[in-house]
């Protein structure tokens, strides 16, 4: 048998093995999640539940200030087959950090969520999520690690976090709104300095995305910064959920790559 025929036969056998392996894989596979933020857990958990929403909105102005300083994060695992093992979030504005004090919590609608000494507190609407949370980079990065195999496809977790100023003496800064720290509300297309969301998956892959500058109404922004009477409703912060998608190469893509490698190998042996 000539050398070229041997090369062709080896290439054919290798290709058969590659095709058999790839055809046994799912047609598509993606790693994806959805993240959202709000001052109120009820807004994230059931946006259409008007009675719960109305109850939460009749609060004093100083209560709202505390709530915007200790917002909730919602993470939904949308992937078909890859559990999420880790969520990270940078602070955005580095004049602040993630704390564990949760100042004024007793006055808020989330007073029932107990302080544990961790920088992330599990919300009441997503019980049973096992996790550990801690900060790195001097408090500028929050890390939440999901236990028991991770956040499974279809699962949702909501956490409350605390924003502190790097200057404890600045009482006003210690009550900064997440809409000023994680991103620049109505800040246009310049997202430099915004928080970065990172995800780790059970297969070892990671992905990250920087938060956009969400558009919020002037009346909503004013309601946070300007005192209002008790008989005026608290404004709602309706952010659009951010989809995070990191596609895994499909079998067809991998097959083309394998064919190219086999062709290259054949040329080198001729």
What does this structure look like?
- It is a single chain.
- Strands 1, 2, 4, 5, 8 and 11 form a 6-stranded antiparallel sheet that branches.
- Strand 6 and strand 7 form a beta hairpin.
- This protein has 7 helices and 11 strands.
- It is globular and about 50 Å long.
- With 270 residues, the chain is of the alpha+beta class.
- It is 27% helix and 25% strand.
- The two termini are 14 Å apart.
- The longest helix has 21 residues.
- It has 2 domains: 48 residues; 219 residues, no CATH class.
Structural class: alpha+beta
Terminus-to-terminus distance = 14 Å
Measured as a percent range, the helix fraction is 25-40%
Shape: globular
In angstroms, what is the radius of gyration?
24 Å
Q: For this entry, what is the oligomeric state of its chains?
A: single chain
Number of helices: 7
Pfam family, one: PEP-CTERM
Signal peptide: 1-32
Domain Ice-binding protein C-terminal: 247-269
Protein name: Ice-binding protein C-terminal domain-containing protein
